[in-house]
Design goal:
Blueprint: E1 6-9, H1 11-14, E2 17-21, E3 30-34, E4 37-42, E5 45-52, E6 64-65, H2 71-83, E7 97-108, E8 111-117, E9 122-124, E10 136-141, E11 161-163
Antiparallel strand pairs: 1-2, 1-6, 2-5, 3-4, 4-5, 7-8, 7-10, 8-9, 10-11
Length: 196
């Protein structure tokens, strides 16, 4: 069973193919086709699946990274994988994106470094313009996948969370930091809000 993975879908860019990526950094060395599933390998290690003609089974209305696939969606994928005798996917327990609140700002050259309350912890974010103390923002925690497939990694710099822009959350095409409505709960999974 695969615990860590990312799922992408974009009909306009790549056609009716669901991409499941286990290792973003590994280069494919071989492929095996099983019905509508292509298994992608780096040497002998599976680094991804491509599921073709997915819209015959389920309609996907999002484009790009699917941040928090529902258990029902994972069940559908796992049914396809089981039918092809392939390892299945674990359910997501968390998207890695939480609502945080700017607790304080410290001047860092010409920008400000925000310190974000993520629900009981105050963590430093990357320097950004245009946020003020009290703003509620969406932050990607270490280990979360960004929209472009990159994983948020711990660095030697003081940054421990990544403040997300509208583009990174697939809300609009601008790079302004997304400000959450007042009713957003600090520490809550941003992509699970609609599932109350």
């Amino acid at each position: 069973m695969f615990e860590k993975y990312s799922i992408y879908y974009s009909y306009k860019e790549i056609g009716d193919v669901l991409l499941i990526v286990f290792d973003q950094k590994a280069m494919p060395t071989s492929f095996i086709q099983k019905s509508d599933v292509m298994v992608i390998y780096h040497n002998s290690e599976i680094i991804g699946y491509n599921i073709f003609n997915i819209s015959k089974i389920v309609k996907i209305k999002t484009k790009g990274l699917i941040y928090y696939p529902s258990n029902v969606f994972i069940d559908i994928i796992n049914s396809i994988l089981k039918n092809n005798q392939l390892d299945i996917l674990a359910y997501y327990s968390h998207s890695g994106y939480v609502i945080g609140q700017v607790a304080k700002l410290e001047k860092d050259n010409m920008l400000f470094r925000p310190y974000i309350d993520v629900g009981g912890k105050i963590l430093p974010g990357q320097c950004v313009p245009h946020v003020i103390e009290g703003d509620k923002v969406v932050v990607a925690l270490i280990g979360a996948r960004l929209y472009d497939g990159q994983e948020v990694e711990e660095t030697s710099a003081p940054t421990q969370v990544h403040l997300c822009s509208n583009r990174e959350l697939n809300i609009s095409m601008d790079d302004e930091i997304y400000i959450v409505d007042e009713d957003g709960m600090v520490g809550e999974d941003f992509f699970k809000i609609g599932e109350r």
